[in-house]
Amino acid sequence: AATELMLFAVSATILGGILVVIFMLLYYRLSGVVANIALALNLLLILAGLALFRGTLTLPGIAGLILTIGMAVDANVLIFERMREEMKLGKTLRASINAGYHRALSAIIDSNLTTIIAAMLIFKFGTGPIRGFAVTLTIGLLANLFTAVVVTRLIFDILCDQFNLSKLSFAQLLQKETKIDFIGKRKICYIASLAIILLGVVLFIMRGDKNYGVDFSGGTLQQLMFDKPVDTGKLRDILKDIGVGNAAIQQYGDTKEVIIRTQEDISKKMNAELKSKMSDNPFKLLRLETVGPAVGRNLRQNALLSLGLGLLGIAIYIMFRFDLKYGVAGIIALIHDVLFAVGAMVIAHRQFDLTIVAALLTIAGYSINDTVVIYDRIRENLRLVKKASFAEIVNLSINQMLPRTILTTGVTMLVVIALLSVGGEVINDFSFCIFIGFFVGVYSTIYIASPMVLSWHAQRVEEKKNVPQQGGKNKKK
After folding, report:
1. Nearest to 458 by CA among 392, 375, 397, 386
2. What pLDDT is stored for residue 463 in this prediction?
3. What gap in Å lies between CA 270 and CA 305, rounded to an integer?
C-alpha cells in the first residue's frame, strides 16, 4: 500500500513536471528549451544528492520537489522577464542577457537563501519525514542556484557565440504594464484576512483533538478495501460491539474503501470482528499506522518547533538583507498564509499530520519567494525613481512584477493540480493544503506584505514629523 501511495504521488509530480515543460516551451520558446534543460538537470542533481546521502523519497520529500520545481521555474521566469525589459529598451540580445542575469541575481539568491535557512532549521529540529522534506528541499535549492544562474547563462553564451543568436521572442501575458491601485485596497484586505483567520482559529479550538491525525494524537489508522460497497452505519454498529463506537470512519475514493481511526490499538480484534460479521464482503488491509499518545504529542511539539523556527529564520534573513520593516511585514505575511491554510483545512474538516506540516512549510517557502522578489524590486525602484512617493513606488513595483507573479504561480500550480487530481486520496489533504496556500501566498504578497511595509514607513515618517527639532528656537536667537 505504501508503494502504491508513493507511485501515485510520483506519477502526479511527473505529470505536473510535463505540464510545466510544455508551458515553458509554448510561452518562452527557445528560452523555454533552455529552462527545461536546466529543470531536467536540477531534478537529476536532486536524485544524485539523495543517492549520495542515502536519502529516501517520502511524501514530505515530494513536497520539497514541488517547491524546488516551482522555484526553479521562478528563477528562469525572473531572468527572462528581465531580459524582455532590457530588449524593450532597444538593447542588443547580448546586452539584454547580461543585464537580465545581473538584475535578477539578487532576487534569485535572496529567495533561495531564505528557504534554505528555513530548511536547515527544519532539519535541525524536525523529526522523521519532516527531515526528508528539509534534505530534498536544500539539495534542490542549491542545484537550482547552479542550474538557473550558471547553466542557463552558459547555454545562452554558446548560442550567441557559436550560433550567432541575435534575437529571442517570448509570448506576453499582459500587453501593457498595469496601473492597478493595489495599495488602496489594503485596509479592506486586512479586515477580510483577519475575519477568515479568526473563523479558522475559533473552529480549530472547537474541534480540539479531532483536528489531529494519528501522527499527532496517537492511536491506530487502518485503511481497508472491501470487495463490495460497504455501509458505514453497519461498520459503526460492529465497532460499537467491541467498545469503539466513537471511532472515526471515513470513506475514501469510492464506497468500497474506508479509513478507520481509533484511539487504541485494536487492529487485530477489529479485523477479526469484521471478518466474522461481514463474511459476505471480504476486505484487504491497505495501510496500518500505530502511534502511541506520548509519541504523538512529541511529534506535534517538534513539528510546531520546526515550523516556528523556519519562519523566524526567514524573518531574520529578510531583516538583514533589507531592513526591520521588511522583515516584520514578511513574517506577518507568512504567519497569515499558514493560519489561512490551517483555517481552510479546519473548515473542510481535514486533519493535521506530519505531511500537512510539510505542506505548511512548502507554503511558507514559496510565499516568501514571491515576497522577496517584490521587495527587491521596491528597493531597486527607490534608487531609480526619484520623484515618486513611497506609496507610488510600492504600487509601481507590484504592477511591474504582476506578470511574473501570475506566471510563476500558475506554472507551479500545474504541478499542484496534478498532485491534487491524480495523486491519490491518501495525499489529498496534503495536496489541498498546498493548493490553498499557494493562492493565498500570492494574495498576501500583494495585499499584506507590501502594504504593511508602506504602513510601517508612513508611521515612521509621521513619528519623525512629530519629534520637536532640538534647539530650533534657541538657534534663531
Report:
1. 392
2. 52
3. 36
